[in-house]
Amino acid sequence: MKKQKAQAGNRKRDVEIVDLNGKAADKKNGGRRNREFAIVTYVFLALFLCMTGYFVYFVAIESEDFINNPYNARLATMADQVVRGDILSNDGTILATTQIDGNGAEIRYYPYGRMFAHAVGYADNGMAGVELLENYRLLRSNAFILTRIANEVAGKKNPGDDVVTTLDAGLQSACYDALGGYDGAIICLEPDTGKVLAMASKPDYDPNTIAQNWDGYVSDDSGSAVLLNRATQGLYVPGSTFKILTLFAYLQQERGDGGFSFDCSGSFSADGYEMHCYDHTAHGQEDLYAAFGNSCNCAFSSIGLSLDRSSYRQLCEQLLFNKALPANLGNTSVSRMTLDGDANDPLVMQTAIGQGQTMVSPLHMAMLVSAIANDGMLMEPYMIDHVQNENGIVVRQNESRQAGQLMTEQDAKTMQEYLRYVVTDGTGRSLQSDRYNAYGKTGTAEFSSNKNEDHSWFVGYAENADGKRMAVAVVMEGVAAGNAYAVPAARAVFDSYFAQ
Ligand SMILES: [Zn+2]
Questions:
Q1: What are the pLDDT digits (tens) for 449-486?
Q2: What is the rounded distance in angstroms from the CA atom of residue 374 to the CA atom of residue 29?
Q3: pTM of the entire structure?
Q4: How far is the C-alpha of 311 from the C-alpha of 331, rounded, in Å?
Q5: Which is deepest, 182, 209, 302, 367, by most CB within 10 Å?
Q6: Where do the domains of the chain lie, and which CATH numbers do they carry?
Q7: 297: CA distance to ligand 1 center in Å?
Q8: Cα 243 to ligand 1 centre (Å)
């Protein structure tokens, strides 16, 4: 066998030799052509693989973002074929729907009008809120295939998918009412999941008539910025709510309360700058709990001066200042804390009590207390629970996501104790309830020399015996004094939520 094979090999070689002798030149040219052909083939194959790869990537990852761009013409085509789906609350209450009038024209209808204005948004003269976030999915139809075929045969539009939000209609109503006639914002988060339970902003608008009133909104010369969602995009002087950060920085630096004690006389001076407590109240001898619970400006000015300024700012950055917030809510503002190592003493004193140059968004403060409530773990805020077809079949389910551990569990538990003290013994006493335990920090932020133009703040959370928890940030603009506004508003919101 072996021998035969060897002979066959020899014969083959003989044939090749004959070939070489006979058509040597042709063979050479043919070889070059084969090589060129092979190169071209490989180049095309490589291109084909790249394009296939990109196509898969585009379909899987990029396409929805691409298509969801409101400037994309494909969305207009989709709107020609699909009736925009509904936006629903977490219990299925309709927040936005499309009605067909007598002439066959589609009208976007918002049954709650102003109450959900900034959260749900609008889809006329541009878009905002959930209408913008989920524009693509509202214009896509996952109706049953037979329904779609029947509609297409009949020349009728298909029903778009419905977007079910995390918004709690009852709580939203409580937030909207709690703001009353004041401009400002209230945002409620579920600390364990990051779900946005409610989000109210004033001044508001009626999304049902936005097209008619558009010119007035965009040329608004009173500066009230009606279309701005103050909960996520507003930036405010934090006032005493910022003492949460100053306290945290101090506890970190001292690795505990450092045996803190301070005798408040109602005023405190350093470097020729005088700080005073609210109404010049002398708080007397205080430990760290009392200084925080009383919201003592003098004690916190002195704490601020004791902090390493660079570390103070770094710690604020660890708590999401000067960076984009990890939130899946569309455009959100970046909170600002700019203190550096060269800052002079008066600026440090002001910063420590939440004046100075620091600015925060209500969303950011709600996220911060949410993380404290959740033992340091921040859950990424989101407001779309799932997308379903017209028959309620879920076609996409969002899961809650961890945004990161903002502080250790032990540090979070320490902060919980200080926030609780504010309610049991401090400026938040009117939040005591049999139905829940509240935690938080009050604040009055001065943003002008006019005493009737302060901002009233409350940020905190509450939990009941069943472990149900809710975090809230309340800011009310242009009020006369702190506790009389934001704290009762927070109380109304907690009462509503824990009555359910
Ligand atoms: Zn004081």
A1: 556 678 999 999 999 999 999 999 999 998 875 457 99
A2: 75
A3: 0.85
A4: 29
A5: 367
A6: 171-499 (3.40.710.10)
A7: 5
A8: 13
